[in-house]
User: Fold these one by one.
Assistant:
Number 1:
Amino acid sequence: MRIQYGALPYRIDATGTLEILLITTRRTRRWVIPKGWPIKGLKPEKSAAREAYEEAGVSGSVGKRPIGRFTYAKSLNDDGRVIPCEVRVFPLKVKRQSITWLEAATRDTRWLAPIEALQLVDEPGLRALIAEFSGMVFTGAAAAE
């Protein structure tokens, strides 16, 4: 099982409503969160934050501890080979979203209410993580503060 680090970008709007940022994958256009391989020299949470900036153009306060993990089958290339990956997910309270960023031309981003995000995400483990995180934020039990 290979390890990746991911960020769950979120914000609380002016009305106090939680919003989650999802992005599309480049090839299959599935809705996911920013994630990637460990970056040499960076702590796991900083790797997750860097992926969020490169893949979604967002930056902010990243939590030092993961809020959860999920597994998925990563397709390595067009030859159909897949490897199992575990994604350790860190909360990222977004403070800034760039107009342009490294992968802007190859991905879509969308801010969504948690219930809408759950409807778009295919991976059961990621859906469970979003549902749990949404409850934790509103009870004050977690976040990147």
Number 2:
Amino acid sequence: MTLSQFNTLDVATATKHLMDCCGSTQWASSMMAHFPFTSEKELVDLSGKIWYDECGEKDWRESFTHHPKIGDVKSLTEKFAGKEQAGVAVATTQTIEALAQANTNYESKNGFIFIVCATGKSANEMLQILLDRLKNTVEEELHIAMGEQQKISIIRFRKLLTDGDFSFLKVSQITTHVLDTAIGLPGANISIRLQAKQNNIWQTIAQGITNTDGRIPDLLPQERNLKPATYKMVFDTGSYYAHQNLKTFYPEVEIQFSTFDETHYHVPLLINPFGFNTYRGS
């Protein structure tokens, strides 16, 4: 379907398609106030503006209920076999069982199911992310989950408008790359938290783990620009070296940095067990 074809749909059908992308009644209603859309970029930009600036906790929580509930081994194996969750279906029984238990623990703690944009992530990566996020407060998880929902919405826009032009989409405004200088290889499977100050307290607003290339290209949703301010990236280097049975002087590395505009900010980390370095990359 092209955007032009989508714009010819009746209001009820168009609204249903939008609800399939993000299951918030308020969000879909506000989006339809701008229907028909002039371009794919307007569609994406409006979705983010409405989601972050006009919707609230009630709307975010409603959208989470429209995702498949994963609570046991059987449902996890079945529901995570789709394209958005590619990789989980081929996981070992042990990983599936651990994911099921962690999902149950997550929902019990936070009052909503675990939401993550799983595209391109393996089952083991998803398990690590889930276990890491179980350490967060409910407030932190609410904001992380709504960011993950926005990533998912964009993916679903692209699936809905298969003939649309989404070439304008960029990588996350904030990216990172970890290089282990002791071995000359990327630092893979390192948990990273992006934090902002809320009421003078650092809170996690996005979270992920580095891929096999040591990168997190989707820390923030595409087209999502942070307000100019000071932020912090926290690298869990202690766990990274513990998995290698190595001691490190730095259990965590924290890098504070300031953004000034809507340009791309790359925050790399060069790490070894007893030293690290950083700079603004390109």
